[in-house]
Amino acid sequence: MSNLERQASLTVCGGRGFVVAEPVRELLSPRHVRLGESTEVRRLLPNLGRRMVGAWVFVDHYGPDDIADEPGMQVPPHPHMGLQTVSWLHEGEVLHRDSTGSLQTIRPRELGLMTSGRAISHSEESPRPHARFLHGAQLWVALPDTHRHVEPHFQHHADLPRVTGPGLTATVLLGSLDGATSPGTTYTPLVGADLALTAGTETRLPLDPDFEYAVLSMSGEADVDGVPVLPGSMLYLGCGRTDLPLRAASDAGLMLLGGEPFAEEIVMWWNFVGRTDEEIRQAREDWMTSDRFGEVKGYDGGRLAAPEMPPTQLKARGRVR
């Protein structure tokens, strides 16, 4: 999914200097952003208080939206570089097209993983016809310097490993959790998992103490380490945890995001992740004037124009503000 804001801001983040080295409970509130005519998202990362969790650098939660009489998601072709996009649904379908020639319908609890590498473009739309409800999350993972110029590619995995326990089913999107490893390609140590809890469940989830973690609430009523986390909000947990207490007052859906703290400082603007202001400006120019990002074939409509760059460079501010 694209960042469709017309006044995109330049963000420098990353580096280990602001990693919380011990367990914390930092509740992050979302910012509401319109995507197209019928989709509004709750943006949790980047956040005014925190910009990254491991290599996870962007988190949007949307829905559940009733789109029975609406076009649903309609995101025109747009570019990416230096990151991976992770598409994750609880309800509905998203049709993905990209400039490598990929064409794939992504359905609930199937992994759509696009590695932009040096340059890619893609579109996302609700199929015609489509299901009544649309509910999911769109996430980005920053690529480390050693891999950020890889060839662009797309992966779709409909069958993902699961970890089960009394009242808990954890589907592993990326990385490893409790011995289960996703087939999705990763370039830094990280984990992403979808947690389905039944009403009345009390359990503890094993964690890696070297990772920092956050939990996004998708639905229902759940407490994470004793903190109520409402749908559309995210609890940052810091590092140093060996397990995580979870309790569900109703059936609930959560997403666990974690990873080794990202050591590099990065610059993120619009749909690009780079290392310098000059690199980002060149990417914007290339999207507007060249064929660097390729062509998305089959989408019914024009591609998305990039917003104007800010007149001044942004100075490094670290992982938090």
TrEMBL record:
Residues 193-290 form the Pirin C-terminal domain. Residues 301-321 are annotated as: Disordered. Residues 41-141 form the Pirin N-terminal domain. InterPro entries: Pirin, Pirin_C_dom, Pirin_N_dom, RmlC-like_jellyroll, RmlC_Cupin_sf. Belongs to the pirin family. This is Pirin family protein. It comes from Streptomyces gulbargensis.
